[in-house]
Specification:
alpha/beta, five-stranded parallel sheet, two-stranded antiparallel sheet, 9 helices, 9 strands, 15% strand, elongated
Amino acid sequence: MRLDVVTVFPEYLDPLRHALLGKAIERGILGVGVHNLRDWAPGVHQAVDDSPYGGGPGMVMKPEVWGPALDDIAAAGIEGLGGATLDSAVPHLDNVRHDQKLGLAEESSYGASGSGAGTEDSDKPLLIIPTPAGEPFTQEMARELSHESHVVFACGRYEGIDQRVVDDAANRYRVREVSIGDYVLIGGEVAVLVIAEAVVRLIPGVLGNRKSHEEDSFSDGLLEGPSYTKPRVWRGLEVPEVLLSGNHALVDRWRRDQSLLRTAARRPDLLEGVELSARDREVLGR
């Protein structure tokens, strides 16, 4: 997968080089390009915004800067523009041994043949514009995006990007405006970090254990239950006895029960979309 991010604050995206994303870059599973929008801005001051037509507070990002930037990135494709690709922050010397152990080498090209969108435009890169006015970002969307081969993020600032940029980009991209929550951020960079982490971790070979994401919150429509590790007793608090029983069926049922109870307490709305068994309903007191 190739990720390209256009922003006026390239240093904001440095976390994309760290931890599991950094390992994915080293393994050739992920390529990341971060581009300074001002590189396409003419003039001494390299202005990227101007006052809005019709009046009002704030500034709007200019189409004559965004247009060429998105044109060039689309034209470069998954090969990326020269000089913009990030390296991993810290070399992970166990990568080769770890990949061999998990048998993941053959999966490093996952998604390279194109997205799973299944539409006539699937050969176009996907452009994601983070905005509070976009469609809600969900775990299901993250799974869908993990099959893309080339995703471009346009980080807006101020009062946003001129709408004509979004409209025109549809000639070269599949465009999605996406919101990570019902609140307003200073810019789109933080949203990109959220979306990128949620998506990239689902690509085979990024996580050491596939079940790590198969059992995540929202993967089965429920919140994930509590987790425990050693020591068995800590500050007078004990690990639930069932987790020490060695009975996998009992452990699975306990985890399901805990997931149901946590969801009912914190996000009862999610239960409306979950198929409940008779035992599930008994646990919930229904």
